[in-house]
Amino acid sequence: MKAPAFDYVRPASLDEAQALLAGSDGAKLLAGGQSLGPMLNLRLARPALLVDISRLDVLTEIGEAPEAWRIGAGVTHARLEDLGDRLAGAAMVGTVARGIAYRSVRTRGTIGGSIAHADPAADWPLALVALGASIEIRTHDDTRVQPAERFVRAAFTTDLAADEIVNAVVVPKRSAQARTGYFKFCRKAGEYPLVSAAVVLDRPSGFARIVMGALPSGPTALPDLAETVLTGGAAAATETIVETAVAAAVPGLDPVALRMRASAVRRAILQAYA
Amino acid sequence: MTHVTLTVNGETIAADLAPRTSLADLLRERLRLTGTHLGCEHGICGACTVLIDDAPARACIVLAVSCDGQAVRTIEGFDDDPVMAELRSAFSREHALQCGFCTPGMLIAGRDLALRLPDAAPETVRHELSGNLCRCTGYAGIVRAVTSVAAGEAAARARSAPPAAPPAFPAVAAPAVGASAAGATPVPSSAVSASTAVAPDLADAPAPPAGWTRFEETFSIARPPATVWAALCDFPMVASCVPGAELIEHGADHVRGRLVVAVGPIKAAFAGSAKIVRDETRRIGRVQGAGSDKASGSRSRAEATFRVEPESRDGSRVVLVVDYVLQGTLAQVSRSGVAQEIGRRLVATFAANLDAALAGDTAPARTPAALDAKALLWASLKAWLGRLLGRSRG
Predict the structure, then answer these.
(1) β-strand pairing of A143-147 with A49-52
(2) Does the structure show a pLDDT above 50 at B365?
(3) Of A153, A172, A191, which residue sits at a domain end?
(4) Range of A100's domain?
């Protein structure tokens, strides 16, 4: 249970980090290390070089624009948890952060690291897609912005090129009437969920997303159900309607898995209207 | 070796360390601070919880070199801490420990909780302590002890230190938010690749043993069944089409080889062997194999049945049923059907390579690259496109 040997560098800037990534075969970024750390110890990951960006101040800023929050990629879950509802218009961010693993993991794990790792069962890939967030990516000579749903391609697979770094996550603010729900079913508190679902409904802007998590191909949206619920409210989300929508989006689920997924979606909807 | 300087319980420590050294190993092996216990060594049990710059963290999954310049506090460093003193008494009073293995982690996590959450209810305490495992006490005494200290005087005094004024958020220019954020652009729906098998009547694929996982795939090759069958029975040809596969040795009905699978940060190199039984007339093959990845201590056994059928004019359809079981560390991280998804993508890439090889236009590389991020990206793009087209047709 000891990590394999690797080289380690803590660069002083993102430029330096990118040069290291580009110049080394088998280089891997280390952010909070709360997913990579266990994988190293289990020897499932065997990078030649770890480039530690966990303490680059430039990645830990939180900025506010009129329409959105810009959360630096290196901001920890614990910091977002402690902000609670101070992220006006995006309070679900605090709720989601509070439910990630355990405090001693949240103090180090980062939002950018989580989305770049793209564990299918992790919270941020699901929540950020539901929130309509975008990922700000530092390319080798520029910055590009990718909607979260196009950033996460599948399990552990993202849109990032080898020398690209997630700079920040941009979460749009929703109106005061926005309704949000987030539900996950975990065998044990803090463990990865078996099923999860997130709901963001904002009538004034017409934004409606209901998204399922913990699927091997990444976050999966239920756009028709979201429209139905946006106009019809929680009453429109009957067990039958939700189950039909889930079954159509994820064919081949056995009855138990279907029921679990549909229940998670329905509970997230009911939470949004609670 | 990397040189680090950090403080541990107030004392400055300088050391040259191999980068892979965990903070826990530095504390225990070099500094002999054995109060930091190592249980699971992969961030599950919480026994190794310490404070790094006053925030609780798991010392087993923190690299010691990444703590350069930081202040670490272990269970040995709380002698004069009033909240910890109260917590120690409460643990004793409430029988909150038996063997004591989890206690250092429990105490540090419990103290952090008491400082953060005044008057936490027992349910909150249970939830907050869920990252620290205890195998003796049933938690009841631990929860009582921590609950009492969270409501106690020492914690209240420690909290009454003037809170830092909440920082104002710097204003930033309105960030480009990307097209989707403005409205409800639908996300590609559906999770399963378009090629999921249409309930093949594989009476020839026996029911999988209990605990095994099955996935079924169907793919089409634009060549006659006899050609496809011959190709599938040709080990070098098959190996050249499986991404990450390497043929070591083979006979008429057995094969030995290696398969490298890379997904995100995970990389596993399975070495193994398989036997094959063929029904030439019905064009059905059954493969039984087993392999292991020594580095991660993962093992897999699999049985696959494949059948080649005629399809349209001069084309073939291959129906594949794979039953497998994955054990060891890889199984631990293979949640949410990730292993099946990797299997599907392997099959999809294999089918594309075989199609190309038989068409003769692109000879597959003799040593094909491992199923890497790019191949995965391509496979998922293809699956996504398939779903998109399927949807627009439907």
Answers:
(1) unpaired
(2) no
(3) A172
(4) 61-172
